[in-house]
Amino acid sequence: EAKRQGGGVIIRYSERSEPRQINRLTLESDLQRAIERGELRLHLQPQVDLDTGAMSGAEALLRWEHPRHGLVSPMQFIPLAEEVGLIIPMGRWVLETVATQLAHWQQQGLPVVPVALNISARQFLHAELVEDVRQILEGHGVAPSLLELELTESLMARNPEVAVQILRELKAMGLRLALDDFGTGYSSLAHLKRFPIDTLKIDQSFVRHVNEDGDDAAIINATIRMAHSLGLNVVAEGVEREDQLEHLKRQRCDYAQGYFFSRPLSLERFAARLAGDESGPDPAPAEAGAPG
Ligand code: C2E
Ligand code: MG
Ligand code: MG
Ligand code: MG
């Protein structure tokens, strides 16, 4: 989390780098200019069908390449962008970039997969979200079924009446809807009944110790069964090891994503993966290891 302390924001660029304090206003104005300066990047992390082992989709994850500080984690700048309202133009940039890529891959004759993107609270409740999505998809000639929106329960719980309305409109347009980070935050089983979602994403905090912690295993197993009874698909997040994968397969989890399969990839590398080239042409180092 980007913690506020006095006039500064504590920023930690990667697991390995030392946190440092940056003037909050500086960071804010840097973020303001990030879009126009082309400092935002979109990475895509493959999702895998556990029945076939094939790539079934991808999640779009935003990156900010700060000219002086290097790669900044979305855990740091998304909350800031949300707070100051920049999330609206940033979210639009993500949508636009995903639609552009999907159209591009289709033109190249690549076997496209649906792409999921994360929607934050302010973006979700913004009056123009539904219209933006419609216009951007139409503008690029991309089928709505190729787009999945990931939302969290806490976001929808803020204003359930409005949330249901927006979700219905998105659903009617043909989009897929996923509930992200399931089991964390304010979970209510009533959400599952009430909100017209297609997919439930099991939070990585449960997956991490699934074979050491009986409680985590129990939660995962029950979640998968419940989701299936409700007609929902299940994606497990944060799969890093084979033993976690084996557990999920035994429990008939539908899809998984995580470092075991692939880290989030640059657009070039992802396109190469779609084209069937496992190595990819991008010589850039694995993203998690590369602070600026
Ligand atoms: P999320 O949507 O739950 O995304 C999953 C996070 O888990 C990503 O972190 C991803 O890189 C990471 N991850 C994937 N596989 C593994 C694994 O095997 N092990 C571990 N330890 N982590 C794994 P990332 O990219 O840092 O994103 C963090 C959060 O920032 C996301 O959580 C999402 O809430 C938010 N975010 C990212 N991109 C966007 C965006 O475009 N818009 C909005 N509103 N939020 C975004
Ligand atoms: Mg997500
Ligand atoms: Mg998640
Ligand atoms: Mg299935």
Automatic annotation (TrEMBL):
It comes from the Bacteria. Residues 276-292 are annotated as: Disordered. The lineage of its organism: Bacteria, Pseudomonadati, Pseudomonadota, Gammaproteobacteria, Chromatiales. Residues 24-278 form the EAL domain. This is cyclic-guanylate-specific phosphodiesterase. The chain holds residues 721 to 1012 of 1017 of the full protein. Residues 285-292 have a biased composition (Low complexity).
